[in-house]
Amino acid sequence: MSRPDRAGDKLAEMMVNKPMRPHFEKVAEPDAARPPQVTPPPEPDKTPKVSYWEPVLAWVHDHGFTHPSWGGWLQLTREFDAILAMERKAVAQIVLEIMRQTLGWVDSTGAMEDDGRRKRVEWAVIDYKHFVAVCGSSSSQVRKGIEIALERRYIEREPITVALERGYISRDDLKKSAQGGGFVYRIRWGSPKSTS
Q1: How would you write the pLDDT of the chain (196 residues) with one tens digit per residue?
Q2: What is the C-alpha to C-alpha distance for residues 111 and 118, in angstroms, rounded to an integer?
Q3: 130, 129, 110, 135: which is closest to 121 by C-alpha?
Q4: Does any domain span residue 47?
Q5: CATH code of the domain containing 120
Q6: What strand order describes the sheet that includes 183-187?
Q7: Handedness of CA 69, 70, 71, 73 (dihedral sign)
Q8: Domain with 150 in it
């Protein structure tokens, strides 16, 4: 009688009980819906935005400052240095632009000062958008600059209707200036020097 082969039986048992890899039938899935076509955002404009003052600076770099003999120049008050040093940039720019729009121009009526010089414009209609362009700041910074300049009494402001009634500006001045500002502005001056 032959001896039973235990090792072979175990091996045979393992072969029979060997896990089989399951076999599934392939199921065809319907085509999935395509995701919607997403249009990429447009490329930002590659042209750099030119600020209000860039052409002026380019001119100064190439040619220097405009000589006073050409006109349109402005004498600054001695106190303006303090505003430049101590106030926000928008405040200084607002004050300077009001000086430029008033003192920078001779009165069109031909009126003369007591000392024989031609009178300068005292009030100017300045559109809010003009202030934003000149300051090169956000509209909120310009608004704050105007508020501070008014609070600290560097400038004065009147509604256009009041300025027309009081004769600060003429209807011609209103037509020549930028429309829609709603206000006229001027520098708040101290008392003039007495001539006696």
Answers
A1: 556 666 666 655 555 555 555 555 554 555 555 555 555 666 666 666 667 778 888 888 888 877 777 766 777 888 998 999 999 999 999 999 999 888 877 777 777 777 777 777 888 888 888 899 888 888 899 999 999 999 999 999 999 888 888 888 877 776 655 454 589 999 998 887 776 5
A2: 6
A3: 110
A4: no
A5: 1.10.10
A6: 124-125, 183-187, 155-159
A7: negative
A8: 73-188
| Domain count of the fold of the chain | 1
Residue 101 lies in a domain: yes
Residue 103 lies in a domain: yes
152 falls within a domain: yes
pTM over cut 0.85: no
Extract the tokens encoding 113.
């000062």
Q: Within 10 A of 34 (CB to CB), how many other CB atoms are there?
A: 6
SS3 for the chain is CCCCCHHHHHHHHHHHCCCCCCCCCCCCCCCCCCCCCCCCCCCCCCCCCCCCCHHHHHHHHHHCCCCHHHCCCCCCCCCHHHHHHHCCHHHHHHHHHHHHHHCCCECCCCCECCCCCECECCCEECCHHHHHHHHCCCHHHHHHHHHHHHHCCCEEEEEHHHHHHHCCCCHHHHHHCCCCCCEEEEECCCCCCCCC
